[in-house]
Amino acid sequence: MKKVAVIPGDGIGKEVMEAAMLILENFNLSFKYVWLEAGDEAEKKYGRALPDETLEEVRKCDAVLFGAAGETAADVIVRLRQELKTFANIRPARTFKGVPALHENVNMVIVRENTECLYRGLEFEVADGITEAVRVITREASERIVRYAFELARREGRKRVTALHKANVMRKTCGLFRQVFYQVAGEYEDIKANDYYIDAACMYMAMRPQMFDVVVTTNMFGDIISDLAAGVVGGLGLAPSANIGEKHAIFEPVHGAAFDIAGKGIANPTAMILTACMMLRHFGYPEYADRIEGAVEKAISEGKTTPDLGGELKTMEMANVVLSYV
Amino acid sequence: MKKVAVIPGDGIGKEVMEAAMLILENFNLSFKYVWLEAGDEAEKKYGRALPDETLEEVRKCDAVLFGAAGETAADVIVRLRQELKTFANIRPARTFKGVPALHENVNMVIVRENTECLYRGLEFEVADGITEAVRVITREASERIVRYAFELARREGRKRVTALHKANVMRKTCGLFRQVFYQVAGEYEDIKANDYYIDAACMYMAMRPQMFDVVVTTNMFGDIISDLAAGVVGGLGLAPSANIGEKHAIFEPVHGAAFDIAGKGIANPTAMILTACMMLRHFGYPEYADRIEGAVEKAISEGKTTPDLGGELKTMEMANVVLSYV
Ligand SMILES: CC(C)[C@H](C(=O)O)[C@@H](O)C(=O)O
Ligand SMILES: CC(C)[C@H](C(=O)O)[C@@H](O)C(=O)O
């Protein structure tokens, strides 16, 4: 029995969570769901975006299924990632038949380091008007994330792992990351390894995203390249993600609370449903994940989608179509 | 009389410089050219990528016209930018008729802060396997670059300035940058001001680059978004840039030495020629810049280009076509 903390959060988080749960509850899973609060609304109610009770409960869970948070997103999600030591942020980006995108046949997984870099919160105003942030890169965290990327490549039958960095400018921090990358790469002779500067990589991502298979990079660059990759394959409506640690995991769509469309029932549930599939795979239900993903693809290819993808369905209508195809 | 240091550098730098000089020398300009060395070859010859003599000479010049450097690019260009205090890195990105691009009607200018952020070189190995880089953001440099962006917008009749940052994570450094941005924006009521997180901005850049007019951001984010923007409008073959300071200026194409095609005479001279145009505008020759840019556009729209843009011309052949159209 796995304990899953369900945190719908703010804005469309609630709506897409309802859609994902509709589908999950259709399966006979050995999950116990615990519904919890976090985000802007929680902050208003309890004075903290991530209330102590939520954090306490979450620590007792095996996974968090997270919808979205609004203004407080960083307080909630960055803190959760750190508290639960989920060191690997996994962000697949692929094209779907029926979804307009800049390119065809894109299928990559971005593996983003999730614990250090500029996300450590080490910032100081050292004098009036002089601020600094400390970017921390360690051998240990770099090795762990690079190894994770190569293992993922092997597990998924992928052929290449590409490291992104800016070692020509940050010789010590990015230099360490690149050095560790090639060291670990040496242990995986079946998988190709190469590296690019982050700036060039962003240009390639726009022009020839098929160059990428597994991408591994540090936290801030991973944040940037994963949004970019989502944009290249058709937008955030389709982008799931998983944060994996030794004991805990957090599953969240890459999109946010989207207050502009919240409450209208038109949010695209795809990213959240695909996020739930990542959780199913994580807990050993790959066949269910396959079936749901197949159903999502069928719905999208038939135009049975929410308006953002050109369809006319509401969030729960699309969820019901997917469910009927499962 | 303006003194211009001409540094062709490595790889295709030499070839595209020859093309740009062919065109510049056709005009009666009050320039004195001083040819200097820097880059990989200089390092081999003199032991330093940026020889002291070059740096000394460059200090006596009003501008540097730079081709490209290879492996030593960071040693040369980052150092030159710092030594010459060129605080503003100006990178226009626009579509050209006849150049395949992901989108149409893109026309933006990226204004990148050029002196601080993660480019200060403040890096330490604080313990074995533990490295850090310090990201410095100051009110003074932020205000200077933001003001430059608004002045540029006004001068070029542009309507909006957009700031990019990650203030939800880096509250102090990016927070300061954003705060200064809106403070300065208040003085420019004729120009709209807005801001995005850098990750979202990269997604928008891929999906709807027409959203951007003038973009202003800190050094590392500026490095990333400018390569991305170049990719969105068709690649580095067309991307010029200028580094502007109080006393000095450096003009360089965004592309590098491209050793893979160097020596074949097929490098696209467009970025370098457009870079020369930025220098002409800087020194008060806007009508010449207009004429050359018009000639470049005509050549490109007629397919009279190098192979990277689908044409059949060699570097100097394309330069001669442009010259004949000036
Ligand atoms: C909300 C924000 C703190 C977060 C991040 O930067 O990691 C988001 O952009 C993401 O990518 O999940
Ligand atoms: C070569 C490198 C140091 C440089 C930079 O990062 O500024 C380049 O990428 C650029 O954008 O001009």
TrEMBL record, chains A, B:
PROSITE patterns: IDH_IMDH. Its cofactor is Mg(2+). NCBIfam families: LEU3_arch. PANTHER family: DECARBOXYLATING DEHYDROGENASES-ISOCITRATE, ISOPROPYLMALATE, TARTRATE (PTHR11835), ISOCITRATE DEHYDROGENASE [NAD] SUBUNIT ALPHA, MITOCHONDRIAL (PTHR11835:SF34). This is NAD-dependent isocitrate dehydrogenase. It comes from Geoglobus acetivorans. Belongs to the isocitrate and isopropylmalate dehydrogenases family. Residues 3-322 form the Isopropylmalate dehydrogenase-like domain. Coiled coil: none annotated. Keywords: Magnesium, Metal-binding, NAD, Oxidoreductase. InterPro entries: IsoCit/isopropylmalate_DH_CS (IPR019818), IsoPropMal-DH-like_dom (IPR024084), LEU3_arc (IPR011828).
